[in-house]
Structure formats: C-alpha cells, structure tokens
Amino acid sequence: MTSPQRIHGGPDALGVPRFDFSTNSNACGPCPVALAAVQQADARHYPDASYAALRAQLAAFHGVEVQRVLLAGSASEFIFRITAWVAQQGGRQVCLPPHSYGDYAQAAQAWGLAPTNQPDDAQLMWACEPSSPLGATQARLGDLVDELGATATVVLDRAYEPLRLNGALALTDAQFQTIWQLWTPNKALGLTGVRAGYAIAPLGAEKAVAALEQLCPSWPVGAHGVALLQSWVQPEVQAWLTESLQTLRAWKARQIALLQALGWTCLPSGTNFFCARPGQALDLNRLRTAGIKLRDTTSFGLPGHFRLSVQPPVAQDALKIALQTGPSPVFTNFEGEVTMTALTIRLPNSVHESIKLLARKDGISVNQFIASAAAEKMASFQTLDYLRREAALGKREDFEQFLKLVPDVPAQAGDALSSDIDTLVKTRNKKP
Ligand SMILES: Cc1ncc(COP(=O)(O)O)c(C=O)c1O
User: Fold this and answer.
1) How far is 25 from 310, CA to CA, in rounded Å?
2) Cα of 13 from ligand 1 centre, angstroms
3) Using one digit for the tens of pLDDT, what is the confidence trace for 115-150?
4) Residue 207 half-sphere exposure toward CB, CA atoms < 13 A
5) Is ligand 1 within 6 A of the CB of residue 198?
C-alpha cells in the first residue's frame, strides 16, 4: 500500500507566502505577550524533565487534576503516539471523521490500524470539533462518546476550539471525563512555528497516561514551547485572543462577501477558516508565484474546494486582484499550466551577491527568488491600478456621510492633539 502524501498549508519551497490563506493560524497574531515570552525563553538549559510547574498551570487552567495532563511535542506528535499505544494494546481499527486532519490517517497507517466507518468496530476513534477543513461541528458527537467512551480510546482534537467564532461544543462534564482532549495553542496565538501541545486524559486513565509517558522521548517540549504554553494560560493572552475573535468575525464577513461577488460558493463554518468552491478552475501555481497560497482540499476528500483562512483586508484585496487579473502570460499557458520564459538579465554584482545570500538563507534558488520578487512587484503595481480604479468610484459626499457617523466625543486620554498641532490644524483649515 502506498503512503498517503503528507500535505500541509504554510511555507513551502518558495518560502513563506506573503498572503497565506493556507494555514488556519490566527491572522491577528502573533499574540504580542506570547511572542515576547517565546523570544525571552531561556534556551541555555534543558526544561524540567517532569514539567511540574507547567503541568500544574495547565491543570489549573482546565480545572482538572494535574495527573491528567500530558505534554506533547505538538498535537501531531501526540496523534502518532496515542495511535502507537492503541496498536500496542492490540487495536486493529480506527474510525476517522469524514474529512479530517491527515495525520490521523498517516499515524494509523504507520501503526497498521485499518480505517473503518463503523465506530463500534474501532479501538481508536478520532473526533475534531470545530473540524478541519470545514470548521464544522461533528455530527452525533455526544452519542458516539456515550457509546464508545467506556470501551474505545476516543480522542477529541480541540485544535480550533480557541478559534471558534460561533456555536459551542455540546458535551456534558460527564462525557468529557471519558475522552482524551488534545490541545495545541500555537494556531490561536499565531505562532505555529513553535511546536508544543498537550492532552488531557480521561478520568481514571492512569495506566494509559503512564504507558504514553513511556512511549515519549525525554523533553518533548523545548524551552520555547514551554514559554508558549505558559503564556497560553495567562489572562492577558486569553483577553487578546477574545478580542482577536471580534476582528476575525469582521474580516470573515468581508472575505466571504468578496469571494461570493467573484462567483465563489462558500461553505458554512464556525471558525477563522472555511472551504469554498470557485466559479471557475483555479491556477494555484500562478497564485503562489504571486505570493498567495490557498489550501486545496482534495487530500481531505473535498475535491474542487479550497480551504481559506480568514485574512486581513489587504490580503483579501491582493487575492481579489490576483483572481481578477487572470493568468499571466509569463508563467502560464492557456491550459493554466506553468510555463517559463528564459531571460538574460544584467544585475550589478553587489545586487547579485545579496540575492544569492538571501536565496540561500531561505533555501530557494536565485531563479525562484527573482521570479517571486518580480511577481510581488507586479502585484504591487496592479494593486495601485486597482486602488486608483476604486478611488475614482468614490464620492466626497459618501466620505463625509461616513465621517458624520463617527460620534463627536472628546479624544481618549493620551490620544488628543497637542495644542500646537491643534492650532496648526485650525489655521490650515481656515477658509481664505
Ligand atoms: C485539526 C488539527 N489538529 C492538529 C494539528 C496539528 O497541530 P500541531 O501544530 O500542534 O502539530 C493540525 C494542524 O494543522 C490540525 O489541523
């Protein structure tokens, strides 16, 4: 049997996409307090191998006994570890949600568990809510937990719970006691490069916890991961997250309206990402060359759709322009295949040397570097044209109408103009 391909969103051989719709990381991030904590992490020493303080903090945050908290190198690491443990216990079958994170299936295949869609036959059942790629609730989750919680290992992946924009999980406290919960705050905090996660074990699963600790190498979480998880439980970090959800809701409404106006069908979701189907075939390579990355959902079993995380207006507008401008004759032919034109260009030696250095640092070729620099420049010119076109449609009266909606209240403390500037503005605005 061939291995399923590991496909992930995010950086690739071309480096970090300028406008990355392909990962579900919180686009308001990184959370400043968490970022500062990670940057100040003391990497000179091993972390405490028992992670005593960190586990106590996470236990208090979730209101569970400390013995129930297991640290993991990342959610992905834990997915492989718990699959290995189920296989070690003699498990033969795994039940996955219909469209789900690829590592569940990868781990199952690595450990010889066969997928089944009959939950009763499975020794390991994965649930994920809100789900990826759909950002949806999982059908009959409560019933499945009731049916299987006592007999099978049920793991609820809560990677996107902190990024839920509407709805709520419908499980009772009693149901939570019978399942494993998997948490990975790096997405919510916009710090996916920091690898750290944790699981909360079901009540009375001491033997399983001990076995899973045995299967884990020493120090699964490094100093930066410890810093991330410690900041995760801080009230100011949670307050930042709550505020970011408001922004994400507004950006999401704008992004959906923009795509719908371009003929896309957007599927409902309750998260900072959603799946959508374009009205016509999409050339992902061309978009990628222009610095824009989307996630094709074919590998999730949803061909013809793309998963898009909610991004700020500037990224949305770049996407709109790229979708409207059509294929570039330099990079694609009429079938939408990427084609190349060989050019000889003359560069000052100093520029060439700097490009070589930067390209090597990013692990890409000089050719890729120049192609993506040219594509970015092109996008910025096209953005200017687009903004000029949009500006030409604007009306002074609309602008004034809009300004009138701003409440006439005194400026907030610290935000007032100094009296000098005040006078300057008044003089400048005085009609001759
Ligand atoms: C549903 C889900 N669970 C887990 C993960 C992996 O998280 P981590 O970054 O902790 O490996 C992902 C990654 O995208 C995911 O989509």
Assistant:
1) 9
2) 20
3) 999 999 999 999 999 999 999 999 899 999 999 978
4) 3
5) no
Please say if the pLDDT value at position 328 is more than 80. no
Shortest-distance atom of ligand 1 to CA 72: 10
Q: Ligand 1: which atom is nearest the Cα of residue 23? A: 14
Higher pLDDT among residues 361 and 205, named by residue: 205
Beta strands 93-95; 124-128: pairing state: parallel
pLDDT tens for 417-427 read 665 556 655 65
pTM for the model? 0.78
74-77, Cβ contacts within 8 angstroms, sequence gap of 24 or more = 74/184, 74/186, 74/195, 74/196, 74/197, 75/157, 75/159, 75/182, 75/183, 75/184, 75/197, 76/103, 76/197, 77/195, 77/197, 77/220
pLDDT > 90: what percent of the chain? 72
Query: Considering only CA atoms, which of 312, 315, 313, 299 is closest in space to residue 132?
Result: 299
Query: 175 CB under 6 A from ligand 1?
Result: no
Structure tokens at 267: 């599927």
Protein residue closest via CA to atom 8 of ligand 1: 75
Measured by CA distance, the residue closest to atom 7 of ligand 1 is 75
Amino acid, single-letter form, for residue 318: A
100 close to 300: Cβ distance less than 8 angstroms: yes
| pLDDT exceeds 70 at position 1 | no
Q: Is 132 in the pocket of ligand 1 (CB under 6 A)?
A: yes
**C-alpha radius of gyration, the chain, whole number:** 25
- Ligand 1 pocket: which of 132, 198, 274, 300 to mutate (most atoms within 8 A of CB): 132
CB distance 231 to ligand 1 below 6 Å: no
